[in-house]
Design brief:
Length: 431
């Protein structure tokens, strides 16, 4: 007991405290600038993803539109701030159009892909529970390549996950998913594309399976949602993935990735708008009457809504197409550049959208993790894959001006790794 108390005291002494007197903004601003120096230099393309940036002019539009509504609370958008309510509705409508939703479809604006997927799983659970209250634990079927937000949804909603291996080409294995389905299955996860492999799962075949079995199919277009439709307009062969595919019940697409909205913005869309009934939260009997919120969040910034709405309007189809043209051209140039480096190969198939993986050719005396470390020592944040070993390389616009520098650093690192026969171990936790 005495020890615990002194431990607590020691902790209190070293704990950061509020300053007694507030510090002026100029000083704090300088401090923020100083602290930022510890971070990777994303403006110069040193981060493989996590940041989505067009240019300074577009950033100004993002910042200003966000700031105009940063104090408003979108929790009560439809009652207190009709402006935000209308913007949310319009964002959902534009999303339904973009992803070819059928008549009667509906959707929600959420804080991010994680919440979008959570909402889609909650709907699937609600519908199944109502239809089959006799069933015990329900389950989700997901390939090894899934995004971990589906694991989070299962943890929170108390569901099991049945994991299945991918096919040899790293797309979801429809036969394995068919095998895994049982009467307690509620949700098939499909990537559009998968975040780890950058490949579209076979949506049409999965849709057929969904229709045949009655299990809901979710198309997770969080990463590629705002790339694919525009890449297709530009003539890239983008496999089918959206709400026009029979059997797809729900789709998620992140506005705060390639929609170029500031963070805190995503869409979850339902082919049948009646599903929204299972998505909402209503607490009817409270001292204040009833409380209703569309999604899991309570208070949330109106800025995220206003910024997302503004970006869709400001870029428009033409703006997105031009941004996506740059991203796709850089992706193909990067893949060709890596292929041209002696000792490396790009996984095939690749390039369903704008990310790819590469590894060291068999028989070389060095491994890909050594290459990743050497690149990291030159300031590049490198995404590493454990299984199969790879460098994971998503492409955004910040990579276009630095592509040559990246490729020449990579070629040099390969030469060094080969010369010194470097074999590093996998560095977990990059992402
Ligand atoms: C980013 C992403 C998510 C999760 O989205 P957050 O916005 O990070 O919550 C889910 N699925 C895929 C494929 C993603 O790329």
């Amino acid at each position: 007991m005495a020890q615990a108390t002194s431990g607590l005291r020691r902790e209190v002494r070293t704990r950061k405290q509020l300053p007694e007197k507030g510090i002026d903004w100029e000083t704090l601003r300088a401090e923020l600038v100083r602290r930022k120096r510890a971070d990777y230099d994303w403006r110069n393309g040193r981060v493989p993803y996590l940041v989505y940036f067009v240019d300074e002019a577009v950033k100004r539009v993002q910042d200003e539109s966000h700031a105009m509504f940063s104090v408003e609370n979108a929790l009560s958008a439809h009652s207190s701030y009709p402006s935000l309510g209308a913007m949310e509705d319009e964002i959902v409508q534009m999303g339904l159009e973009l992803f070819n939703a059928p008549e009667g479809a509906g959707g929600q604006f959420t804080s991010g892909g994680t919440e979008s997927i959570f909402q889609a799983v909650k709907v699937a659970r609600g519908i199944k529970r109502e239809a089959r209250p006799d069933l015990g634990r329900l389950n989700i079927i997901a390939a090894y390549s899934r995004h971990p937000s589906v694991d989070k949804a299962a943890a929170i909603l108390d569901l099991d996950i049945k994991y299945v291996d991918c096919r040899a080409d790293y797309r979801a294995d429809v036969d394995a998913i068919r095998e895994a389905i049982d009467e307690a299955s509620i949700f098939i996860y499909a990537g559009a594309p998968t975040i780890y492999y950058g490949l579209m799962d076979p949506m049409r075949e999965l849709g057929e399976l969904a229709l045949e079995t009655g299990v809901r199919l979710h198309s997770d277009a969080c990463y590629g949602g705002f790339i694919s439709p525009f890449a297709r307009d530009l003539g890239y062969a983008i496999p089918e993935f959206d709400l026009s595919v029979p059997g797809v019940s729900s789709l998620s697409a992140d506005l705060h990735k390639f929609g170029f909205a500031q963070k805190g913005a995503s869409l979850v869309l339902f082919a049948d708008g009646n599903d929204l009934e299972y998505a909402r939260y209503v607490v009817p009997d409270l001292p204040g009457g009833s409380y209703a919120s569309p999604t899991a969040q309570g208070s949330r910034s109106g800025g995220a809504v206003a910024c997302a709405w503004t970006m869709l309007q400001h870029l428009g189809r033409e703006g997105y197409r031009e941004v996506v043209r740059g991203i796709m051209e850089t992706t193909h140039a990067a893949m060709d550049g890596v292929r041209a480096i002696d000792g490396l190969y790009v996984f095939e198939p690749s390039g369903d959208t704008n990310l790819f993986r590469y590894d060291v050719e068999p028989g070389e005396p060095f491994n890909i993790f050594a290459v990743a470390r050497l690149m990291n020592e030159r300031g590049w944040m490198m995404g590493q894959h454990r299984e199969p070993p790879a460098i994971h390389q998503p492409i955004t616009l910040v990579h276009t001006p630095v592509l040559e520098e990246y490729l020449s650093d990579l070629a040099e690192c390969v030469v060094i790794a080969r010369r010194d026969r470097l074999q590093d171990t996998f560095l977990d936790g990059t992402y």
